[in-house]
Structures are given as structure tokens and as C-alpha cells.
């Protein structure tokens, strides 16, 4: 029986005292058990089971039906903090409502993702908000405040930010290291997390799979050095799934799991997500680490105390006082309206030569064509749709079904092999004879990949016509006339059994591989298993990859094309007044978690479709519905109108139709730079946005569409920009007027740049934004309070944040490139001055420029070093180093085998390291160096050397 007299159940006491009381009552075994994601109940104290982790990126995910809002990148495109906060409230309420009926639903939500959209080929770009830290921070603060709720004591849900830190690649994501120099760290990556934590609406963070500067994120010293110093609030660090084991199994950072688990716990990880619901493995590692003296009970208690504080904040022990207990706000009219409003605000009008808006008129017909024209796509972190609206649905509703012509544009094909034609057995669920989009129409929840009760495909005299879609890179899906995708179950047989591509390993994608020496012949590779399609006695199946003696050899197919998709699209386009081509991606294919993209290009099949539509009808609009940007340079030059929207959730089609028809004036803005070509991109693993000129902050080329870009159907003027310094703020204001013919929204964007700044500072950076709605002819004074600190940067010379004295230009406009008004403000600031090398020396990672190097770990627990990244060696440049009245020697602190050459104004010192002692055996090596005054220092690194620090010996010091 629960004893309600115990202090930890006394709501009059502070959470800290209650957590301490409960902690003292738990046995060691009970405390260790709480360190796993799935903590068991403690029945003797009346404690229920508890789990960390409930996905809620843009709605409740993985727990059945829920309101599905636009993807996170779409929420970023709204540039509307207030709207996103309301969405956070709705999602939090649905989490609570679902929790009331299903105790599998957790209240510790793993959302939002605040990794910055640094590189547009990152497979998980759909999960982030923007490439800019200020915009990302603002949207994250809004969403987490909504999820948290307004009660001063109890939390609606407890948000955990993902993924700490500098994580933008899926390729080898658990073994690659992001080389992040201090300026990028402090100005860019940390900023995205910091503001949400300081706002008090975040319960913790989740470390990313990757390493940063050679050290796994789950061992990051920054968890204590930065994260937990931003707030006095208790923060929980939840590991990513399987990451604790990665420390040994894939990263080989430690030799034993006991060492790795102890190191993660000491670094600040509190909850271990590993081995699913089986907690025995991880708790066993904790026990072993304790027994070996790698940790003590204080380490365990520190983590458990944070977890108990989290549970207290969620009202677990105060059900009668918890204001969010018993919430029933699920799939309400308000939530449905909010999903539509969000989808409308996320639409970005990229180009418009006057074709739009396309108001419905008598006799006006619209052709809706393209591979996503009748699709409402979900992603890995979506809930199951209760309602859906495809572009075809929305346009039929708005223009009238009789005025809308449809053609998907998939190729209609038949496959023939030696055994006959590939055919799908007739079933009750496949009576339609014409290929139709698999995501359109009503969902049949029984049509899931993995079913084995449906008959497999066979080969015979009758051919089944399939809809073939090439999603790019030769990745195909094949679909029956009834909308069922060919899929492969665990038994290896190919069946028409999935309603859409999906799953952690997608089983619905194939690739046609030409057979050498056989004209037009192909083998069909199943990408999910890596095996080829063969014809076996029991039906068509996939041979196990690498199987030396498969039961049946890979079938050789001739592919007969009944109709090209572009031909169907051309017919539909020619029969209509205006054409809307809907192109884009499937979020489960070619760019998703575990898979980066390889190109910005639109898949060739979709290129052919918009070209065919435009050739048949020049009044062609291209709508890109995608998780990420495309380099559609020719389409942008050719077509009269282009729009982009992320996958817009359950109301996507209705929202698009309202924008196209003019019921809504679009005002979404790009949260990422849209580059013109792949050649504009740095390497995916190059995290130095300064050195490689990434994002709008540093990119000097001409993008296809700039960060913040977006058009509307009315006109706005900017005037009377003023900036007044008020202590620690610069108060900026301007007058915005809607001078156009209709009501609409404008997203006012405020940027700053330092006049006459040194190279390496941002070309301009966002310091404020506001989405404002104005009636036609109306005006409004828009104000931005800008902290003076926002004008600054990280000063590597002195290891601090600094605002340089000087003149700063404030630029306001409709995008980062469309600046309408500007003004200047003078700031006294504190000059950074030259590097005080006699006092501070030079940390290797504090360089101003580098070539051919990467940052690595100085030790397993803290510090950075620099090593060459190529055989030819690397170089570092440290600008304006002050040697005062002179130095006589340099001490090179380094490890490894190789050489370090320090050159200053003609003088040089060369140190050879013999190796031995391991990569962390950092030792000082002295060499003569005579120099005085202020000069640049160049350091050449050769071989396997790992340079940590340079110290200089004053000429005044005795030898």
C-alpha cells in the first residue's frame, strides 16, 4: 500500500528535497534499474514503471493515430513562433490524452531536433528547423514551451532536445567525427541548444551518435562545461538508442563496456537507451563498473536524482494536483484547424510571373499531375493519419471535381522472364485495374510490409501491369493497380502487401541492373536485403545476398513499357487551362535517417514530367513537396511559377489548394539556402562553416534561392528604420505597410553585419524576425529588441565572447538577399587586440585559418588537439600574435610521430616527435625561437603528430 505520509509524496516540499528523500529510500539495485530507459516499478514504495522517450517531432509518433502537423522543416518555414507554440501545446495535449489510455505512451518527449540544417544533403534535414541558429532557437523555444505548458510547477510533457552536438551526416554516423573549431562551436552549434535551455522549457538533451573532435558525443565534456551551466534547472541526458554499446562495438573508444558505461555516466548521461526493453545488459554493465571501482554510488545517485526530479515535474506523485492529468484533447476541431493553418503558413512561393493566384472561374480546368499529386506522405517520425488531404483532393474540393484532370506520371510496365510474365495473384484487396498512387484514397491498415498471408507473386501467361517510379539514383518502387506496393517479407517472398514504402529497413525499393551482353535485359535487385529477385517453386522471392548456391538463380527480366508517365502527363496538360505539377520525395527513400542524399538534383523521371507538362501547356506551375531543397535551376528559369512546401501533414492538400487559388496569400520563407548546383556544396563531413563558406552566413556565391526567400500575392513597403542603443539592447523599429491589393502576411527579417569587419565574420546574420498580418492598406510599427551581445562573436585570441567596438549595419527586408532598409549603430565594445601569447600561449584548435587538418581529442575526457588530415600534412595560421619584448623559445605540447614547424616572421623552430606512448601522451618539446612584436604564426604539421598547445618562453626569463 502506498504510504502518502512519506516526504517525497508531500507536495508542499520542493522537488529537490522530495527527490533526495526518495533517493535515500531506494536500494542500490533499485537505483541502478532506474538508469535504463525502461525503469521497472518499485512496488514497495508505490512507484510505477517509467520510460524515457516518446517521439513527438510534429505530432505524437509511433503510437497509432494522431494529428499530423507539417514536418519540422515546414514548421521552420512558417517563421512563426506563436503558431509553433500553439502546435507544441496541441501535441503535448495529445501526448497526455493518449497516455491516459495507453501507459506505453511516455511523457518525456524526445523533441524537437535542433541540429542546424548546415548541409542540404543531410538525410535527416526534415527533422530540423533551419540552417540559422537564431531562427532554430526561436522555433525550438516556442515548441518546447508549448510542450512544457504554462504551469509554474508541473510540466505537460518534458521535452528533450536532439541531437547533441554538431550532427549533420547519416553516412557512418556512429564512427565519423565532426571537426568543430571554437568559433563554430560557440557561434553556431551550441547556440541552437542554448536559448531553449535558458528559456526553462527543456528537460534535457540527447547526445548524437557521432563524435565531435575525436570524442563520442555521449562522453562530451560540454554536457557539464556548457549545457548544465546554462540553467539551474535539473537536466536529464538520455542516450540515443544503442549508442552506449557503440562506444565499444563500432567506435572502439573503450576496450570494455564497463569502462564505456562508467565514462558516459561520469560525463553526464543519466538514462541509457540500449537493448530495447531488456534492461539487464545495461544494468549489468553498471554493476560491473561499480564493482571494479570505475564509478561509485555518488555517480549513480547523481543520475537517479535527475530522473526522479523529472518524474516529479511530470506530476507522477501528485495526480490530484497535476493540472494536465486526465487531458482528453485529441483530434479536436481546434487541432484539425491548427494543422491546416500550419500547412498553409509553411507554403513558400519561390517564383511567380503573374500566373498565380489561380482563382476558380467558370470553365477553368486544372490538370494536377506528378508522382506526389495524389500523395500525402508521412516520414519516420509521423503518427498515423486520422485525416488526409492530397493535392488532388484539395484541388478537386476547391475547383470542383469536374474541373480537375489527373495524371500521376508513373511508367506503366510489365516484366517478362524465362518462366513467363510477372504477375500478382488476384485478391479481394486488388480489384482496381489502373495504377493509382499508393498514398491516395483510404488507408487499409492491414496492408503492411511483412505480411505473409497474401500469396507471393508468380510468373505465368498473364502479365500484371505495374506502376514504376524512379525516385532517383535508380531506386524504384513498383505498385499494383490497386495501390499495393511490392514488398519482401522475412520469408523472402515478394508480395503486393504494403500500402506505402516504410520501416526502418525499407522493403519496397528495388533497382534494375543491366545484364552485360543481353540487350534490354535486367536483373531486379531488392535493395532492403541486397538479394536479387528469382523465380522459385513457391513463387517469386529474393535470394539471400551472397548466397553461393541459391535455391533459384536471379531472374533475367525484359521490361516492356506500356506507357511512359510523361505521355500521360502531356495528355492531361494539353486538356487543361493550367497545369500543377507536384514533384518531390518520399521521406522513406533517398534521404532519411540512416541515409544521406547524394545530389541536389530532382530525380530524372520527375524532370521529364515537368518538361512534358510545360511543352504541352506553358501555363505550368511546379510544386515541390519535399523534406529538403532541390537544385531546380532550369525549372526556375523556364516555368512561370514555383512553390515549395515540406510534407504538410494531414491538411497538406487543402492548404496547397487554398494558396494556389488565392484564398490564402503565401508567406512561408525558406529556412535553408537553396543552392544552384552540387558544385556549390562543401563535403558533407566538413563542419567548418566558416572555412568552407557554408550557409547564408558565409556563402559568397549566388544561390538559386536565398535563405529567408519567399514571395506573396501582395506588396509590402519598409520605411523609417531606426536603431537606438539602450544599455544592453539595441532597440530597432521600422514601419511596415501593406501597399498591395489584398490582405496578407509578411515576414520581416532583421540582419546585422559589422562594417569593415575582418574576413571570417558572417556576411550578415539574423538577429530578429516577425511574421505580421496586415490588411490591404494597413501599416504597423514593427519592433525588435536586439541584445548587444548578439552583435558579437567568439574571440579565439582570448577565449571569450566579445563585441568589437565599431559600426554595425542593421538590415531589414523580406529575405537575407532582399534588403529594403538599413541603418547603422555605433557600439563602444571592447577591442580584442592581438593574441597575448606570452600569457595564454596558443591552443592548437584556436587557429584563424587551417589547411589539411582536423581537430581530435587531447584526452578521452577533455581537451582538443590538431592533427594532419592528409599525407601531405597540414598548416595552421594564428593571426596577430603579440610576443611583447621578445621570446627565446617555444614549447610544443604534442603526441605522436612526426614534426611540428613553427614559423614567425622569418624565424622558425622545428620539433621532431619520435612517437611512442600513445595518442594521448602529450609532452612538451622545446626549441629555440627568437621573435618580438606582433606577427602571424604559421604552424606546419607532418606525419601522425597531434598538436595540443604552443607556449612561448619570454626572453626575460632566465634559462
TrEMBL record:
Its EC number is 3.2.1.21. Residues 835-954 form the Cellulose binding type IV domain. Residues 425-444 are annotated as: Disordered. Coiled coil: none annotated. InterPro entries: Actin-crosslinking, BXL, Cellulose-bd_IV, Fn3-like, Galactose-bd-like_sf, GH, Glyco_hydro_3_C, Glyco_hydro_3_C_sf. Signal peptide: none annotated. Keywords: Glycosidase, Hydrolase, Signal. GO terms for biological process: arabinan catabolic process; xylan catabolic process. Residues 746-816 form the Fibronectin type III-like domain. The lineage of its organism: Bacteria, Bacillati, Actinomycetota, Actinomycetes, Kitasatosporales. Belongs to the glycosyl hydrolase 3 family. This is Beta-glucosidase. GO terms for molecular function: alpha-L-arabinofuranosidase activity; beta-glucosidase activity; carbohydrate binding; xylan 1,4-beta-xylosidase activity. Residues 434-444 have a biased composition (Low complexity).
Amino acid at each position: 500500500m502506498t504510504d502518502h505520509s512519506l516526504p517525497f509524496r508531500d507536495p508542499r516540499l520542493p522537488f529537490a528535497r522530495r527527490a533526495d528523500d526518495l533517493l535515500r529510500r531506494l536500494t542500490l539495485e533499485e537505483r541502478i534499474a532506474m538508469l535504463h530507459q525502461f525503469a521497472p516499478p518499485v512496488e514497495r514504495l508505490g512507484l510505477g514503471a517509467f520510460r524515457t522517450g516518446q517521439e513527438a517531432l510534429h505530432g505524437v509518433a509511433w503510437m497509432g493515430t494522431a494529428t499530423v502537423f507539417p514536418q519540422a522543416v515546414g514548421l521552420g518555414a512558417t517563421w512563426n513562433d506563436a503558431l509553433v507554440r500553439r502546435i507544441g501545446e496541441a501535441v503535448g495535449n495529445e501526448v497526455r490524452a493518449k497516455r491516459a489510455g495507453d501507459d506505453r505512451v511516455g511523457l518525456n518527449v524526445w523533441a524537437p531536433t535542433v541540429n542546424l540544417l548546415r548541409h542540404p544533403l543531410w538525410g535527416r534535414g526534415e527533422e530540423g528547423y533551419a540552417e540559422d541558429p537564431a531562427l532554430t532557437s526561436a522555433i525550438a523555444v516556442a515548441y518546447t514551451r508549448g510542450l512544457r505548458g504554462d504551469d509554474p510547477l508541473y510540466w505537460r510533457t518534458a521535452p528533450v532536445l536532439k541531437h547533441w552536438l554538431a550532427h549533420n551526416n547519416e553516412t557512418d554516423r556512429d564512427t565519423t567525427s565532426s571537426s568543430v573549431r571554437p568559433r563554430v562551436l560557440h557561434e553556431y552549434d551550441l547556440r541552437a541548444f542554448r536559448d531553449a535551455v535558458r528559456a526553462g522549457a527543456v528537460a534535457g538533451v540527447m547526445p548524437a551518435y557521432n563524435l565531435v573532435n575525436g570524442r563520442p558525443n555521449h562522453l562530451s565534456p560540454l554536457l557539464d562545461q556548457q549545457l548544465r551551466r546554462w540553467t539551474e534547472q535539473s537536466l536529464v541526458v538520455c542516450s540515443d538508442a544503442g549508442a552506449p554499446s557503440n562506444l565499444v562495438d563500432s567506435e572502439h573508444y573503450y576496450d570494455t563496456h564497463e569502462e564505456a558505461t562508467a565514462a558516459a555516466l561520469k560525463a553526464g548521461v543519466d538514462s541509457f537507451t540500449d537493448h530495447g526493453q531488456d534492461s539487464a545488459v545495461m544494468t549489468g554493465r553498471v554493476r560491473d563498473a561499480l564493482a571494479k571501482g570505475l564509478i561509485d554510488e555518488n555517480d549513480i545517485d547523481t543520475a537517479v536524482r535527475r530522473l526522479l526530479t523529472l518524474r516529479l515535474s511530470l506530476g507522477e506523485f501528485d495526480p490530484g494536483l497535476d493540472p494536465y492529468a486526465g487531458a482528453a484533447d485529441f483530434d479536436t476541431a481546434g487541432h484539425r484547424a491548427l494543422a491546416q493553418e500550419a500547412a498553409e503558413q509553411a507554403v513558400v512561393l519561390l517564383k511567380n510571373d503573374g500566373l498565380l493566384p489561380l482563382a476558380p472561374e467558370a470553365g477553368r480546368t486544372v490538370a494536377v499531375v506528378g508522382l506526389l499529386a495524389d500523395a500525402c506522405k508521412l516520414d519516420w517520425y509521423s503518427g498515423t493519419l486520422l485525416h488526409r488531404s492530397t493535392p488532388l483532393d484539395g484541388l478537386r474540393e476547391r475547383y470542383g471535381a469536374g474541373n480537375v484532370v489527373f495524371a500521376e506520371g508513373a511508367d506503366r510496365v510489365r516484366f517478362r522472364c524465362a518462366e513467363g510474365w510477372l504477375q500478382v495473384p488476384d485478391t479481394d484487396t486488388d480489384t482496381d485495374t489502373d495504377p493509382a498512387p499508393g498514398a491516395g484514397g483510404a488507408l487499409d491498415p492491414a496492408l503492411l510490409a511483412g505480411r505473409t498471408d497474401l500469396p507471393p507473386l508468380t510468373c505465368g501467361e498473364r502479365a500484371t501491369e505495374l506502376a514504376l517510379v524512379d525516385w532517383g539514383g535508380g531506386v524504384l518502387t513498383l505498385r499494383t493497380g490497386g495501390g499495393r506496393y511490392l514488398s519482401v517479407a522475412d520469408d523472402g517472398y515478394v508480395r503486393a502487401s504494403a500500402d506505402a514504402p516504410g520501416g526502418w529497413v525499407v522493403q519496397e525499393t528495388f533497382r534494375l541492373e543491366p545484364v552485360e551482353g543481353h540487350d534490354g535485359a535486367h536483373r531486379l535487385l531488392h535493395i532492403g536485403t541486397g538479394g536479387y529477385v528469382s523465380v522459385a517453386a513457391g513463387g517469386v522471392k529474393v535470394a539471400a545476398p551472397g548466397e553461393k548456391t541459391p535455391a533459384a538463380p536471379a531472374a533475367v527480366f525484359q521490361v516492356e513499357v506500356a506507357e511512359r508517365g510523361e505521355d500521360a502527363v502531356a495528355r492531361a496538360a494539353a486538356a487543361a487551362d493550367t497545369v500543377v505539377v507536384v514533384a518531390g520525395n518520399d521521406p522513406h527513400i533517398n534521404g532519411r535517417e540512416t541515409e544521406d542524399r547524394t545530389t541536389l538534383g530532382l530525380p530524372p523521371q520527375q524532370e521529364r514530367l515537368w518538361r512534358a507538362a510545360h511543352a504541352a501547356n506553358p501555363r505550368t506551375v511546379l510544386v515541390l513537396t519535399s523534406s529538403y531543397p532541390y537544385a531546380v535551376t532550369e525549372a526556375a528559369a523556364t516555368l512561370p511559377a514555383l512553390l515549395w512546401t515540406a510534407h504538410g501533414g494531414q491538411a497538406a492538400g487543402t492548404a496547397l489548394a487554398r494558396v494556389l487559388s488565392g484564398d490564402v496569400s503565401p508567406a512561408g520563407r525558406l529556412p535553408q539556402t537553396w543552392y544552384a548546383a552540387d558544385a556549390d556544396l562543401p563535403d558533407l563531413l566538413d563542419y567548418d562553416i566558416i572555412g568552407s563558406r557554408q550557409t547564408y552566413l558565409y556563402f559568397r556565391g549566388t544561390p538559386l534561392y536565398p535563405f529567408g526567400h519567399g514571395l506573396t500575392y501582395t506588396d509590402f513597403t519598409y520605411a523609417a528604420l531606426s536603431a537606438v542603443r539602450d544599455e544592453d539592447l539595441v532597440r530597432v523599429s521600422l514601419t511596415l505597410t501593406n501597399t498591395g491589393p489584398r490582405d496578407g502576411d509578411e515576414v520581416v527579417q532583421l540582419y546585422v553585419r559589422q562594417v569593415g569587419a575582418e574576413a571570417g565574420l558572417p556576411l550578415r546574420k539574423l538577429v530578429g524576425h516577425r511574421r505580421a498580418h496586415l490588411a490591404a492598406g494597413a501599416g504597423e510599427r514593427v519592433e525588435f529588441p536586439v541584445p548587444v551581445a548578439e552583435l558579437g562573436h567568439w574571440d579565439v585570441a582570448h577565449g571569450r565572447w566579445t563585441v568589437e567596438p565599431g559600426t554595425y549595419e542593421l538590415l531589414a527586408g523580406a529575405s537575407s538577399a532582399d534588403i529594403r532598409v538599413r541603418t547603422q549603430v555605433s557600439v563602444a565594445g571592447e577591442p580584442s587586440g592581438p593574441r597575448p601569447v606570452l600569457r595564454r600561449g596558443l591552443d592548437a584548435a584556436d587557429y584563424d585559418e587551417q589547411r589539411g587538418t582536423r581537430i581530435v581529442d587531447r584526452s578521452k575526457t577533455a581537451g582538443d588537439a590538431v592533427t594532419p588530415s592528409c599525407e601531405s600534412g597540414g598548416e595552421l595560421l594564428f593571426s596577430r600574435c603579440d610576443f611583447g619584448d621578445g621570446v627565446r623559445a617555444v614549447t610544443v605540447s604534442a603526441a605522436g610521430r612526426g614534426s611540428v614547424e613553427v614559423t614567425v616572421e622569418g624565424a622558425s623552430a622545428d620539433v621532431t616527435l619520435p612517437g611512442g606512448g600513445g595518442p594521448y601522451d602529450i609532452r612538451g618539446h622545446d626549441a629555440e625561437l627568437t621573435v618580438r612584436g606582433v606577427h602571424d604564426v604559421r604552424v606546419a604539421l607532418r606525419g601522425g603528430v597531434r598538436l595540443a598547445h604552443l607556449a612561448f618562453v619570454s626572453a626575460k626569463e632566465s634559462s
